[in-house]
Amino acid sequence: MFDLYRYFDYIITEDNIPSPQLRKPSSYPLKLFFEKVEYHSPVFYIGDTKADQKMVENYNREEGKNVRFVLLQNQHNKEVDADTVIKKPDEMCDVLNSYDYAQD
Predict the structure, then answer these.
(1) What is the pLDDT of residues 10-26, one digit of tens each?
(2) Structural domains of the chain ordered from first start
(3) Angle, in degrees to the nearest 10, between helices 50-63 and 28-36
């Protein structure tokens, strides 16, 4: 997994999902995450697929939360709706630094 575990406290993979119908775009992966990590606004979810976007949308609707979807855009996903679009991972720092935290 590209040694990503050293950068994150908790990572959810398909191995953590008990059945296929609970995979994205189901809200289950985010619900599972927030069972382990307490929700503190703002929350940003970085994804690159329509399934990622729908999972965030489903979670927000079901839980009354406001997880912001950040699209890591490429040539294949330009049609995916997002709160914020970045083209390179390091642009996420700009998103976090420019975010108006007073709105939460």
Answers:
(1) 889 999 999 999 999 99
(2) 20-103 (3.40.50.1000)
(3) 60
